[in-house]
Structures are given as C-alpha cells and as structure tokens.
Amino acid sequence: MQSESESAQALNVAFVAGVAPGKWFHRWEERFPDVPLASQMVDDGEQLAVLRDGRADVAFVRLPVDKDREGLHVIPLYEELPVVVAPKGHEIQAFEEIPLAEVADELFEYDGGPSERLDLVEGGAGLAIMPMSVVRHFNRKDLRYRPVTGVKPYGVGIAWRRDNESSAIQEFIGVVRGRGANSSRQESVQRDQQEAAKQRREDRAAAQSKAARARNDASRAAKAARGGKPAARGAKGRPGSGKRRGR
C-alpha cells in the first residue's frame, strides 16, 4: 500500500464530537498494523479546516458541507437525532418530546464549539438544539435534553480531499463502508491475490499433466503385459513396436 519511506507515516483522522469512530479504528489496526493511525476530535467549525490545511487526511463531519467549493469527496454515513438542551429544572423535563415552536423563542445563536454552547445553556443564556450524541458525549449533570420535532436530523459523513487519493485513505474509506479484507483495494493484497490465483492455476495444470502421464504409463504397461514385451516408444516418442520404418 505504501513505499518503505512512507510506511511509518500515520494516517490522520479527525472527527467531530459525538462521532464514535473506535470500531473503525480497531478494524484498521487489525487489518493494517503496519500503518499507524492518529486521531483528533475537532469542533464543528474546524471540521473542514483540518482537511484544508492538511492536519487530517480524512474527517468524520457533520452534514451538509459544500463539497464542490471545498474540493472534497463526501460519503453520507448516518443521521443523528436532534434534541433541545435546557438547564436542570426546566419545564421540558415534563415532556417526552418537544415541538420546535414551543422552544423557538428561547433558542440563542452561537457559532462556537459544542462544549462552549453547553456552557452557555448551563449559565442561563437560553436553550440549544444539538445532536443527541454530542449532549451524551459531554454528559453535563446540570443539563437536561428531550427530542425535538420539526427539526431535520443531523447527518454525519466521511470526507477527504479530491487531490489526496492515497491508497491508505482508500483503504480507510473501505473499512468505514464495511468492505471486507478479501475485497481490499490495497495494492499488495491485490498482487498477492493475483499471484495466489496464478499459482493455483499452475498447480492444477501440473496435477492434470501428471495424472495424464500416469494414465499413459499405465496403459503402456498393460499393453506390454498382454503382449509379453516391454513397453517401447516409437521414433517420435509414442508407444510403438520398437521397429523403425525404412526410409
């Protein structure tokens, strides 16, 4: 997959809060133990910047993103449930789920990271709508949350730059998408599979040739036994009487 000079270079993977990439990391380590993987969690506002400036080769991002403007490949993976977050004791605790219209007046605008947003909710700035996985990730004891209706689910995808098509990135995308080791696109794996298939064909042909020779030898031996003479070959290597034709 990589040259010797690149073999020690790590594959850098970024992910936003709430995404749990551990299962993919474990699969990578099992399948490609010679290629180290480095990971970092970033705020939503940094999810594209880390790809743009090269801090990450691949990133798990929140959708939507402008992949054409950013020059990215983006594959949607799954959707997350939106929830409204409030301080402990807020009236949302009395409901199983909350319509957006019921809390719209209490929402506040903030473009910073999720941890700071939760700080503001906890401090009484208002309510926030966030992915449930993010709220669970930070697990603030003084906050409560409920599913909110009337809000589109949050999408999560995996993104990488179009001008970076390394085999390591392609392998990682395959791991995330569930491609098995036997269908790996790794060059070395493909080469080994091709060589193994070639060897099987050669072994099969050799076995068939050996079996054919054994049958021929057995046939000549049987004919010789019936005629009381040892088996002999003609001038051209075929069974014959042992006599040569005249010129």
UniProtKB/TrEMBL annotation:
**Keywords in UniProt for this one?**
DNA-binding, Transcription, Transcription regulation
List the Gene3D superfamilies: Periplasmic binding protein-like II
List where Low complexity composition bias occurs.
221-234
SUPFAM superfamilies with a match to the protein in the record: Periplasmic binding protein-like II (SSF53850)
Q: Which domain of life is it from?
A: Bacteria
Q: Where is the LysR substrate-binding domain?
A: 23-106, 118-178
| Chain spans, region Disordered | 180-247
What spans are recorded as compositionally biased (Basic and acidic residues)? 188-205
* Protein family membership: Belongs to the LysR transcriptional regulatory family.
* Protein name, per record: LysR substrate-binding domain-containing protein
List the lineage, top down: Bacteria, Bacillati, Actinomycetota, Actinomycetes, Micrococcales
